[in-house]
Amino acid sequence: MKIESYGFKKSYLPENAEGIPARITAVHRERFEIFSDFGEGFARVKTKTYLMDDEPFPTVGDFVMIEHNPIGDSTIIKTLPRRTFFSRRSPDPQKGEQAVSANFDYVFIMQSLNADFNERRLERYLTLSRKSGAEIVVVLTKADLIEDTTDYYLRVSRLAPDACCHAVSAKTGEGLPRLYSYLSPGKTTVFLGSSGVGKSSLVNALFGREVMDTSAIREDDDKGRHTTTFRKLLMLDNGAMIIDTPGMRELGMWVLENELDAVFPDVEAFIGKCRFRNCRHETEPGCAVRKALESGALSYDRWNSYQALENESNATETKAEMLEKKHKRSKDISKFSKIMQKEGKIRF
Asked: Is the model's pLDDT at 152 over the cut of 90?
């Protein structure tokens, strides 16, 4: 099997590229599983390149250039430009953005048809996923738990009118054929959803055998326990690829304004129509948003959700700017030290 089977195209190679192409299939802290023309293997990043030269650290799905080592870990020397990219705010405030997955064609946003179905969580996933550049599909899992899915389809369509939605059951096989239209050879789909939503069970059902560990949900609140502990790219028998991700209980917002606007068109319809351009939508006269809320044209739930995500996004942007300035200052100091050392003005 060649690297092209994993979705690679020669057009992805930059001019004068060094090394051979590979794809990241799993991430284990500082070690990566890869696939190249030499087959499966492991690799580590070239420390100087990635720590000193600001090369983007690889994530699952990335195409990279490697120096192949036939008797040990290969060395990753470059991350190739990403076609699509999904990220979240890192739990570590010093790191800012955290890569989740890259170079996928579809995002399956998964919501369970049990008590854990949550419109606010779906809004967060939609907002984050729109930035990725991939096609979004909402997958309603555990369809065997209810008799009529009509209400859930309507609730999803209100939040994501331009996204396809499918109800499926890994237990009975209901709806699975509809998903195979996305899972074609060379295409990559990333699965996103909270713990217990049934990602691993769905992966097993699509494979027709158990390739991922699963665990039962808690009966008291219908919430799940983590079963996927690291990000991994899996290949179906037909050559389609799936990226399964750990359930992310707290997705930090890392979005641009237009992603919020796309998920909240009902809110956007009133933003900017206030009497005052800098309206805070509180007590100002002529506020179109307050008028819409009072008349029922805009729901308080949607407005509160929009405000919460906007505030979180703004806070993340401010923190990111601060970290970027701090990082740039450290680089400038390091660069200055090297120049002075070279000129013999500083001795170590």
From this structure: yes
- Whose tokens are 């007590």? That residue is 283
Alpha helices (runs of H) in the chain, residue ranges in sequence order: 47, 119-130, 150-159, 176-179, 199-207, 257-263, 265-268, 288-295, 300-342
Whole-number Å distance between alpha carbons of 310 and 314: 6
**46-58 average pLDDT score:** 83
Q: pTM for the complete prediction?
A: 0.72
**How much is the CA Rg of the chain, to the nearest whole Å?**
23
Q: How many DSSP H helices and E strands does the chain contain? A: 9, 13
CB 194 within 8 A of CB 245: no
How far is 273 from 271, CA to CA, in rounded Å?
6
**Better-predicted residue by pLDDT, 25 or 159:** 25
155-177 confidence digits (pLDDT tens): 999 888 889 999 999 999 999 99
CB 125 within 8 A of CB 110: no
The three-state secondary structure class of 339 is helix
In this structure, how many other beta carbons lie within 10 angstroms of the beta carbon of residue 136?
19
Taking the C-alpha atoms of residue 215 and residue 199, their distance in angstroms, rounded to an integer, is 11
What was the pLDDT predicted at 244?
81
